Amino acid sequence: MSVILLTFHPEELDRADVDVIRRLAVGRRVVLTRAPEEIARLLGDVEIIAGFGMPYERLHEAPQLRWMQQWGAGVDWLMHHPAAQEHPFVLTNASGVHAVPISEHVIGQMLMFARGLQHAVRAQQRHEWWRPGHQGVFELYGATLLVVGVGAIGSRIASLARAFGMRVEGVRRDATVAAPDVDALYGPNELAGCLARADIVVLCVPHTAATHHLIDAAALARLKRTAYLINIGRGGTVDEAALATALQAGRLAGAALDVFEAEPLPADSPLWSCDNVIITGHYAGNTPRYQRRAMAIFLENLRHYLAGEPLINVVDKHLGY
Length: 321
What we know:
By secondary structure, this protein is α/β, with parallel strands linked by helices. The protein has ten helices and twelve strands. The protein is elongated.
C-alpha cells in the first residue's frame, strides 16, 4: 500500500486535519512521524510527502514518490541535493502563506527607519533623551520603494506601501506580467537603474545560482547614500561583507535583515555592531496562523492530486522557485 508521509511530530497537527487527510486518501496509508528511522523504513512505499522534516538527502530512496508538499516557501535546499532536481516527483511549496506577516514585518522596519525608532530604542536602553531634528527623520509618503521579486509577498508589500503614498517599482523575471499596486515593472537586466532611484529596497527573491550575491559591492555602490536595504528573502542574495563595509563607511543609510548566509548570524559578524542595522532572527514569516494557512494549501493540493488535476504552487526544481 502506498504511503502519504506527514513529517510532523503528532502534536504539531490538528487531529481533525489528519482525519480529513485519511478520509480523502482512500487506499493509501497515512503515517505521521518525524522519526528518521521510521521515515527510512517507509521511503520505498512513499507516494506523497508533506511537512517540515523532509528527508532531502534520502529522496533517491523513494522511487514511488510522486509529489512533495513543502511546508515553507524557500527551496534553496535543491542546490545542495541535485539528485532531487532530477527525481520526477512534483514539488510544491507554501508560497503565499507568509505574505501577511512578512509584509507587516517589512512595513514595521520601514517605519522604524523613517521615524528613527531604532536609535530611540537604543537611547532608551542607555537612559538617554534622544530627539532628532527635522533632518533626522523622513516620511514614507512620496518615497520610492523598489521591490525585487514581485510574488505573493512582494505584491502585498507593494499594496501596503501604496497606502502610505509611496511610489512602488518592481523587478521580476517576467516584467510583462502586471502586478497591482506597482507603478512600474522592470526585468532583472534593469536592476542597476532601479537601484539608483530607490529610497528603500526590499529583497523578496529566492536564493538560486542566478540570485547569489545579487546585491554585491557594485550593486550597493549604485544606491543613494540615503537609501535603506531590507532583506526578507534569503541571506545568500546579499554579499554580507560588502554590505557591512558599505554601512560602516556611510555609503548606505541602513539595513534591516531577517535572513543571513549563515544562521544564526555568527557572533563575530560586523553587522551586529552597526548602529544603522536592524537584525531579526529569521522570523518575519512567523504567525500563529501559519499552520492553518499551510494546511489549507496542502488540503487543496491533495484534492487536486487525487482528482488528477494540476497542483498549485508548483516549483520549477531547476530554476529554484
